[in-house]
């Protein structure tokens, strides 16, 4: 028994050691990037990792001399609207595929699901032609309308809705609940963990978009952060690497906040589910 416990402790130690090593591999680039953003550009150009002039000047310069705040605002507007739209439309379509009975429902779902196999790059040209015809180029709408719903989000919520006990639907029918009432009084609260997961996924996916904004936005008034950072780096006068790194660090902050709150609500949902 003692030998078994010793073996178990060694295995546990190796697991934690592996996790620590992987964590370091993930965190070191972030720590190094943040540290670089505190250094003067002259020291960064020399390849120095230490300087006697550690300060937040690069952040002040990034905020005051570049449109980084405008880029952040644009991305927040786009990501929040896209997130809310996907929660609404994906949940409604998933509800239809689970609780509404109509001819060809399963076939329609498989066709809907097949769109996940298409890479986004294959949809760029037809989508660009469509939004150009509609006159949506260089506007918030061009980065929101093509992503109002998601086949992946519908699939994920459908799988979650399928786990709802059939007795709840029967009880709702006995109580006289309409489909709309059953949807927002029973289905949505019961599937809150999946809703939080979809919210975090859609927000981060919209926030990290690069190719589509680069093709469809042409001014700082609508350009999101990822494309905005590329625009700053491409300017001939923008050779302040400390400020570039500070701008990159600022861009990461909202994603970290989204992940933090997403994890918090995810854990809260798991605890509530365990209690139930």
Q: Determine the N-to-C terminus distance.
A: 37 Å
CATH homologous superfamily heading of the largest domain:
MetI-like
Mean pLDDT: 85
Radius of gyration based on Cα positions: 24 Å
Approximate shape: globular
Number of helices: 14
Give unreliable regions as ranges: 272-276
Named at the architecture level, the CATH assignment of the largest domain is Orthogonal Bundle
Major sheet summary line: none
Strand content: under 5%
The sequence of SSEs as H and E is HHHHHHHHHHHHHH
What fraction, in percent, of the residue positions are helical? over 70%
- The assigned structural class equals mainly alpha
CATH topology-level name of the largest domain: MetI-like fold
- Name of the CATH first level of the largest domain: Mainly Alpha
Total count of domains: 2
> How many individual β-strands?
0
Family: Belongs to the binding-protein-dependent transport system permease family.
Transmembrane segments: 16-35, 76-100, 107-125, 137-157, 193-212, 241-261
Membrane topology: Multi-pass membrane protein
InterPro entries: MetI-like, MetI-like_sf
Could you characterize what this model shows?
With 276 residues, this protein is mostly helical. The protein has 2 domains: 2-36; 67-275, MetI-like (MetI-like fold), CATH 1.10.3720. The chain has helices at residues 2-37, 41-45, 57-65, 68-99, 105-114, 120-133, 140-144, 151-161, 166-175, 179-190, 192-207, 211-216, 225-234, 241-275. α13 packs antiparallel against α14. The longest helix is centred in the first third of the chain and has 36 residues, at 2-37. It starts with a helix and ends with a helix.
